[in-house]
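Morning!

This is the sequence you dropped in the shared folder:
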Amino acid sequence: TVPKIAMYFLLVKLTIGLISSFPDWKYLVMTIAILSMFYGNIVAYAQRSVKRLLAYSSIAHAGYFLTALTSVDKHLFSALLFYVFVYSLATLGAFTILSILEKRDGWTHHFLEFKGLAKESPVLASMLALFLFALIGIPPAALFLGKLGIFFGLVKSQMLVLGILFAIASFISAGYYLKVIVYMFLYTGESKFGKVEVSAGEAFAIFVSAILVIVFGLYPSLILEPLLRALS
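The structure's back. Tokens below.
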């Protein structure tokens, strides 16, 4: 989470100066953003490994990030700051769960291995589902507000086409996230893997991330105002 937030601060500072001095640079950023959004989402659909799926989805999220850097509107930057912070929490929680599952003998993160996970490990499956719903942007998960803020920020900045592409890409991503959830809750697994062992540190990371994703979705000002003060 900390590296992502640090990267955000660096890119925002650089972009404000760069686009203010060289307005045409925003078209390059815009092109990279569009390619990243759709490439990441399309390739994610082709993956059979959930871990690789999340890795490619991060390319799409990088594209979402870049869309907000095509304008120097401060309201758009605040929405992006909120988005990056909550996205970092959701990915931290999701990858922590994947690292726990990886400790099971023979586990490869293949989609088929997630069948019936809700029955074998209901808490882990529920937490992973929460983080995946958050990445889609379904309320009350906080990422919904981040995506909504970026979309309206783009529209306000007279970038309606980019805003529509952003919304389309976000909608496309829902399919592969929901596929994981369906496999966990609606399919029956073979139960051929050993018992899941969760350390205290892993449990702490998962539950804190989950709580913050929900709390910041209900009360975004709790984190947004301190982050904006830090940015200014």
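Headline: The radius of gyration is 18 Å.

More detail when I'm at my desk.
O.
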